[in-house]
Design brief:
Chain lengths: ~300, ~260
């Protein structure tokens, strides 16, 4: 019979046992030693990002100089000059503030609506169905496509912008929050109910912090959508608004064929995006989900 | 003097899966007295965890009644603090100290100063003072379980419900946790309802053992195990008790196999 068991006759001869003195590991120095400043700098994320930016800027400057056509592609130095000039005259600052104010109103309203919708959705099965159907319908709809409709309903001006921003924020945040709520482990839910938590306290003290990684992802996506939508919407109809935002600044400069100013407007949009992502959201993450070990 | 704390009368529990209606326990009776270390023991499928959930108030019996101090159990509540098998029961966004304090804060059972003192004392009791301000993700499994136990005991519930609390721990940690639980009981004399599928754990931890048979869970026996502990684990009485429970659960024929 064919057996998998090793046959006694086929056993290996016994191998010798051994004990030995430990090898001297002194040659590698301390087992743990602090990294030098240069070693730490190389591994630093901010430093690496800075290097990447530096390379991009050098490439930009060289290409623009080689092209030598400020109307098509201004150099980095030219762009920075315009940027600094417009900052100092206050034009750029005003434009940016106008945009950010509108954005803040739209973003805040979007968050409130998303909060109401998801609270309703976790309270009942039918609420969940309603929210997932609405999200499936409206999430793929570009906010800009609603702009003509918004113009008819609210006229030219801030209300229309706020409307499209709400649309771009609401679904992304609501969808992520709902997904996060659903992913809260059953044991944690029971643990919360065990303490007698119910209703709004249960949502606020258990579900929201437990779903925070997802909620934060929703907030980030919502912010990016909103910022994008806002700038695009201002480009479309900033013309008749009394005080335009950053999109209008870009649009105006394009009409004057003032490409360095267009670039300086785009640079502003990028800088604000970078700031919100890598300063505000990064700080929020460090204080919450990273600290709690929910995300690394 | 001992008085009846928890009364379970003819409890039948059923739950629905998408395809079936499962009967977890059938007409189970037992009563837990003040200061008992009451163990529900049974193989998987005897509905012991479901039974504990019902006592916790997370599901209602289809038949029979569950009473604590004569009051019918209707909903989950902090008078029956539960310790789960899973480590996820701790709130990852709270430190050890905040986790222990949290239920006292939301139930407002104690004054603020009282709660703080109790939280610190409970953390000390489970030997985690050093890790007071650490978040749970930095702790080992055994430490997380100690936090959960400290959290439940600090609230001083009428009864502590433990659902296979040590099952997810490694064997060495499990043993030291059993020892710690027993020494805590020696100091505080709380009432605990403890679910396990390990015969050895049941005999060591329990003062009374309810043996359930599976599919559906029905009462097979209730035994006294107060005299057994780590001190006599190698004695023949311990072995005899273990053998007796084994026979109750699986019958004679399986023993000889």
């Amino acid at each position: 019979m064919n057996s998998a068991r090793p046959n006694a006759n086929l056993r290996e001869p016994p191998r010798p046992e051994f004990e030995r003195e430990l090898v001297d590991s002194g040659v590698i120095g301390d087992v743990e030693r602090p990294l030098g400043p240069a070693e730490r700098l190389v591994g630093n994320e901010t430093f690496q990002r800075f290097l990447i930016l530096l390379v991009l800027i050098v490439v930009w400057e060289l290409y623009a100089r080689w092209l030598n056509n400020s109307l098509l592609f201004p150099t980095f130095t030219e762009t920075i000059q315009t940027f600094v000039h417009d900052l100092s005259t206050g034009v750029l600052v005003n434009r940016t503030i106008t945009s950010l104010r509108t954005l803040a109103i739209g973003y805040a309203l979007g968050l409130v609506l998303a909060g109401l919708l998801t609270t309703f959705a976790v309270a009942s099965n039918i609420g969940t169905r309603i929210l997932s159907t609405l999200t499936a319908m409206f999430n793929p709809l570009p906010a800009i496509a609603l702009l003509p409709l918004a113009l008819i309903w609210f006229g030219l001006g801030t209300p229309s912008l706020v409307f499209v921003i709400i649309h771009s924020v609401l679904w992304a945040v609501a969808l992520n929050t709902l997904v996060g709520f659903r992913g809260v482990p059953e044991t944690l839910r029971m643990s919360g109910r065990n303490m007698g938590l119910k209703g709004a306290r249960y949502v606020g003290l258990i579900l929201i912090p437990a779903a925070f990684p997802s909620i934060l992802a929703g907030l980030k996506i919502g912010w990016a959508f909103a910022w994008r939508t806002l700038v695009a919407a201002e480009l479309v109809f900033g013309v008749s608004a009394r005080s335009g935002g950053i999109g209008w600044y870009i649009f105006e400069a394009r009409n004057d064929l003032d490409t360095p100013t267009v670039f300086s407007g785009l640079l502003t949009v990028i800088l604000i995006g970078l700031f919100v992502e890598s300063v505000i959201f990064r700080a929020l993450e460090a204080r919450t989900v990273n600290l709690w070990g929910m995300q690394r | 003097m001992s008085s009846v704390l928890l009364e379970v009368n003819g409890v039948t529990l059923q739950y629905k899966t998408p395809r079936h209606l499962v009967t977890a326990t059938y007409q189970v009776d037992f009563s837990v007295h003040q200061g008992d270390r009451y163990v529900i023991l049974g193989p998987s499928g005897c509905g012991k965890s479901t039974l504990l959930k019902a006592v916790g108030g997370f599901m209602a019996p289809v038949e029979g009644s569950i009473r604590i101090h004569g009051r019918e159990v209707e909903a989950p509540g902090p008078d029956r603090m539960m310790v789960f098998q899973e480590f996820e029961q701790l709130m990852p966004w709270k430190t050890v100290y905040q986790n222990v304090l949290f239920p006292m804060k939301v139930t407002r059972k104690f004054s603020r100063a009282d709660a703080v003192a109790r939280a610190n004392a409970a953390i000390e009791k489970v030997k985690l003072s050093e890790f007071r301000d650490i978040y749970p993700h930095m702790l080992s499994g055994g430490m997380k379980m100690r936090v959960a136990i400290a959290r439940a005991m600090a609230l001083e519930p009428d009864i502590l419900l433990m659902d296979e609390p040590f099952a997810a721990l490694d064997a060495l940690t499990r043993r030291s946790m059993q020892q710690e639980l027993l020494s805590l009981w020696d100091q505080l004399r709380f009432t605990v309802l403890f679910v396990t599928h390990s015969i050895e754990e049941a005999i060591i931890v329990g003062s009374r053992i309810l043996v359930l048979s599976p599919h559906p869970g029905r009462v097979r026996a209730e035994l006294d195990a107060d005299t057994f502990n780590f001190g006599n684990i190698d004695k023949s009485e311990f072995g005899a008790m273990s053998k007796r429970i084994h026979t109750l659960l699986f019958g004679e024929e399986r023993m000889s196999a």
